[in-house]
C-alpha cells in the first residue's frame, strides 16, 4: 500500500535560525498523526511547510492524487496545488478568525469551497451547508448568522464544517482546541474523533496538549528545537517514552 | 528675465494647455495601458494616474482615458446618471471644450466618444463609438478579500468562487440577488469584472456591444476594457438566473416602457412620477412624437 502523504526531510530556516530540520513521515489513508512539543519547537513551521502555506529550504512532499497517483507536489503548477488545498486537503487553524470569513454567514462560509470548485446551484449549496451544520452539531437555524455571533467552540465547529464539505482526504490542524475552555475542548475532541472515524480522514494534528494526542492520534511525533526526537504509536510513546525530552513532557502532563 | 506679464502676453488661455490637457508622454503611457487592456479583455491594467484639475470621485480616471483617446475631430458627450446637464457632466464637457477644442453634443447618435458615470445610453451604440466609464472601485472581489496580493492571484488562477459567495449572501438575506448596481460580469469567458456602478438593467448592453468600452479608475490607478463584440455574462446561479431590474412603469414624459426610469417626487404630498434616466433618449422620443417638453415639465 502506498502512503496517502509522504514527507521527506523537510527543513526550514528563518535566516540562520532553525524552524524545523529534517522532518520525515508517511501517513496512510485514515491515519491520524499527532505532532507534539513545547512552544517554539517547530510544530507550526513544519505544519505550514507541508500544507503549502510556507516555502521551505530542503525536502520533498508527495501526495497520492486521485487523478494521477503518487506525485511530488513540487511538480504541480500553482493552480493545481491551490486546487488540491481546497479539495482533497484542508487546514483547520487554531484561531477560527484565520480560517473563517467573519463577515459572511455560516452558510456562505461552508458553501465557499463548493462554489470554488464550480457549484452553481444555490439550493444544493444551501442544503449541503445545512447538513454540515448538523453534522458538527450547530443548529441549522443559524445558517444565516455570521460567525461573529457564535461562541469560540461554535466557530471552531463551523471552521471544521467549512473544511470538510468538499470531502478532503487529508486534514491539517494546528492546535484545534487551543483557545477553548476545557469542557468545550472535550466536546470538540469527541466530535472530531467521530468525524475522523466516520469519514476515514487522514489527519496531521499539531498540539502541545498530550490529551489531544491520546484521544485522536494513532501515531505521534515529538519535536524539540526544530528536530524530531521520537516517533511511534501514540499509546506506546505515551506509556513508555524513550527520549528524555519525551519523558519530561509525559511526566509533566501526568502531574497536571 | 521673464516677467509674469510677458508670459500672459505670450500665451492665450487655450494655448497654455497641451491638446486635451495631458502631455504627450502621459497620453502615450495611458494608450499603452489601453492597448494592453483591450488585448486582455476584463483584466485590470495598472497605470500611473496623474493629478487632474478636479477631485477624485469626479471621474479623473475616465477623464484621463478620454484625454488619451481624443483626436481633434472627435465629438464628445458626457453623462452622469444618464443626464447631460448635471454639474459633473457639464464641467467635464467644458473641460474638453477648453483643453482640446473638440465639439460636444448631448445626442448619443452624434457622439464619437461618450464618457459616462452610472449609465449606458439607451440608444444602441455603434462601431464608430467609444464608451468611457468612470470607475470608483475596479476590484470586484475587494469587499470580501481586501488583500490585493490575494485578489490578483484569484484573477490569475480564475479562482472566482468568492464572487458567488457574495451572490449567495444576497439570496440568503433577501430571497433574491439584491445586488442591483455594479453587478459583476465575466468578460470573454475569462476575467470577472466590475462594470462600475451602472444599474444591472444596463448589463446586457455590454454583451456583444459594437462600441469599444473603456474603464478608468483614477484613484485606484487601473484601466480595463471590453473590446467590441465581446461576450459579457452577468454572474448568477442556475436556480437564481440573472434578471434585469426595471420599475414596472412607463416614462411620464415620453411614454417609454423599455427604458431605465428614475423616480421623482413631484409634490409635498409624496406624489411620484417616473421618467427616463437617459435625458437624450427621452428628448429624442418627445421630438419624434411631436411632444412639447415644456408643457409636460410645468
Ligand atoms: N516567521 C518567523 N520568523 C522567524 N522565526 C520564526 C518565525 N516563525 C517561527 N519562528 C521561530 O521558529 C521556531 C519554531 O516556531 P514554531 O514553528 O512557531 O513552533 P511551535 O508551533 O512549536 O510553537 C521558534 O524558534 C520560532 O521563534
Ligand atoms: Mg504553533
How would you sum up this structure in a few lines?
By secondary structure, chain A is α/β, with parallel strands linked by helices. Chain A is built from 10 helices and 10 strands. In chain A, helix 4 crosses helix 5 (122-135) and helix 4 packs parallel to helix 6.
The largest beta-sheet of chain B arranges its strands as 1-9-8-5-4-2-3
**Percent strand of chain B:** 15-25%
Bound molecules: adenosine-5'-diphosphate, magnesium ion
Helix content of chain B: 25-40%
Measure the end-to-end span of chain A: 40 Å
The first-to-last residue Cα distance of chain B is 61 Å
**Arithmetic mean of pLDDT of chain A:** 95
Poorly predicted runs of chain A are none
- Beta-strand segment tally of chain A: 10
Order of adjacent strands in the largest pleated sheet of chain A: 6-7-8-3-9-10
* Content-based structural category of chain B: alpha/beta
Description:
Chain A has 256 residues and is of the alpha/beta class. Chain A contains ten helices and ten strands. In chain A, the strands form two sheets. A six-stranded mixed sheet of chain A has the order 6-7-8-3-9-10, with helices on both faces. In chain A, strands 2-1-4-5 form a four-stranded antiparallel sheet. In chain A, helix 7 (182-199) links the parallel strand 7 and strand 8 (202-207). Chain B is α/β, with parallel strands linked by helices. Classes of the chains: A alpha/beta (256), B alpha/beta (298). The interface between A and B is medium-sized, with 24 and 17 residues. The structure holds adenosine-5'-diphosphate and magnesium ion (MG). Residues 43-44 of chain A line the site of magnesium ion.
